[in-house]
Amino acid sequence: MRKILSAVFGILLLASMSWGQQHSISFDPSPVPDKPGHLTLQLFGTTGTSTCTYYVSAVYPQGETAPAGPVATSQCNGTLSSTNFVRILWRANPGAVAYNVLKTATTPATGSILLGTTTSNPFLDDTGQALSSWTKPAFYPPATLTVEGFKGGIRLPVQDFCGQTCNVRAFGAVGDDVHDDTLNIQAAINRAQDKGGTVTIPPGTYKITSGLTVDKPTTIICTAGRVTVIDASSLGGVAAITFQYGTQDAGGTGPGIKGCTLLGPGKTTAGSIGIALGSGSTSATGEAVRLAHWFRMFK
Predict the structure, then answer these.
(1) What CATH number should be reported for the domain holding residue 22?
(2) Per-residue pLDDT tens for 84-110?
(3) Please, what sign has the CA dihedral across residues 156, 174, 210, 233?
(4) Does residue 148 sit within a domain?
(5) How far apart are the C-alpha atoms of 82 and 117, rounded to whole Å?
(6) The pTM of the whole model exceeds 0.85
């Protein structure tokens, strides 16, 4: 198990700056699904030996979620038709206005991978139709829901994905150290910046594969006690988190980070930095932040 190095970097970045007003966590976003679940496949007609792989994303009035998947079959018919086809099924999402079904063997990226879109039944048939262009979204789930969610079969009240506090789980972050949570966390940061709030990261290990950027006086708050880890071990010579905004706002709140553990790619990975100040930024604050396996902890 990696040895965690502890550091409190508020003094290193700006000794005279203290934490501004902190906003409390106001809701549990887990009852409202952020993307389709229970993806399954059904084969119709004559099966074959080809592999077909699919992803499904939910579309809300406010934006599109990260695609769920993959779900694949190795018995896909090489010549799909109206009689030999694959049916992709998923669990419907409250509030979703459409679903995009993607067909690709790799992680979805912008290109000709859209199999089709449905606005009614939560399934779509792959009969061999031509793929069309799909643009990778910013992965913004709805900022404000007008639907009810469910948890354990119990109907729950309407939830707001992002009040003064934006929880990364509401934006599709998983925290299992397998799913790439980069875009989900960045989406939460972006939304928090729009609302002038904070970002919270619950317990878990969140894998990121590119650096995160904070452009406004937004604070990232992790659950203390080394239970919230941002795993940036796959990064190269870049910073895990860059604070581009370096001044306090009118209320005296500035950018910062609290309670997080950041794991880097290794001390020998030249250029790897735990936390950096971007061009034009002069300060950021930190509290109980732990960094390990970085070429440089701060810049």
Answers:
(1) 2.160.20.10
(2) 999 999 887 767 788 999 999 998 989
(3) positive
(4) no
(5) 17
(6) no
